[in-house]
Amino acid sequence: MVINGWKEIIDQEINAPYFQHLKEFVKQEYATKTIYPKGKNIFKAFELTDFKDVKAIIIGQDPYHNPNQAHGLCFSVPDGERIPPSLRNIYKELSDDLGLEIPNSGNLEKWAREGVLLLNDILTVEAHKPLSHSNKGWETFTEHIIEALDRDDNPKVFILFGAYAQSKKKYIHNPKHLILCAAHPSPLSAYNGFFGCKVFSKTNQFLESVNRKPIDWQL
User: Fold this and answer.
1) Rounded-to-integer distance, Cα 114 and Cα 170, Å
2) Is 148:9 a contact under the CB 8 Å cutoff?
3) CATH number for the 7-209 domain, one of 3.40.50.1370, 3.40.50.300, 3.40.470.10, 3.40.640.10?
4) CA atoms of 36 and 41, how far apart (whole Å)
5) How many Cα neighbours within 13 Å face the side chain of 18?
6) Using CB atoms within 10 A of its CB, is residue 183 exposed (0-12), middle (13-18) or buried (19+)?
7) What is the domain partition of the chain in residue ranges?
8) 62 assigned to active site
C-alpha cells in the first residue's frame, strides 16, 4: 500500500463506504478471473510519483487488457513488451515537439519519477474486456484524487488526451494550474488534433514560468 504523501488522501478514500463495495468487487474479481494489473501494481502510479512531486497529470481510461501489458501506469507497458499504437504516437509527438530520440521501450516509469502522474480513471480490468470494471467505484476514487491535486496550490499541468480525459475538466478549478487538451493519440484520432499539440514543450514552459524544474521527457 502507498506509504508516501498520498497515504492520508488514499486512506480517506479506502475508508469511505463506496470504496468498501469496490474493494469487495475487486477482491472477488481477482479470486475468480484474470484481472490486470497484478494486485501489487494497482496503486503503482502513486508509489512512483509522490503527491508533493506531481508536476503533470496524464489521465487514461482503464488498464491494458491483454497479458503482460498493464503495470499500473496509464499508456505504459513493461520493458520488453510491444509498444502500443497510442504510445507510439505519443513518442512521435514527443520527438517532433522536443527533438528527442524515440524510445525503444514502452516503460514510462522514468516519467513517473520525474513527477508525471500516469493515472488511469479505472485502475483494474478483466482480461480481454475493456471497461469491464467501469461504474464500480474507481471513477469516484479518481475524481477525488483529481480534486485533491486541484486543491493543492503547487502549480501543475493536467494533460487531457481525448474526450474521456477532457470530461475530467469539471473537477479542475484552481487557476494556479494549467489544463492542456488534445485529441487522443489513438491511430483513429491522432491526426485530428493530437499531432502538433506540443503538450510536452508547453508543459515545461509553464513549469519554468512558475519556477518549477521542467520535466526531462527523454526515456
Assistant:
1) 26
2) yes
3) 3.40.470.10
4) 9
5) 12
6) buried
7) 7-209
8) yes
Residues in the chain: 219
Task: Read off the pLDDT of residues 129-183 as tens digits, 9 standing for 90 and up.
Answer: 999 999 999 999 999 999 999 999 999 999 999 999 999 999 999 999 999 999 9
What is d(CA 195, CA 32) in angstroms, rounded to the nearest whole number? 41
Select which of 11, 50, 53, 62 is catalytic: 62
Confidence of residue 190 (pLDDT cuts 50, 70, 90): very high
140: nearest Cα among 3, 1, 14: 14
- Neighbouring CB atoms inside 10 A of 176's CB total 11
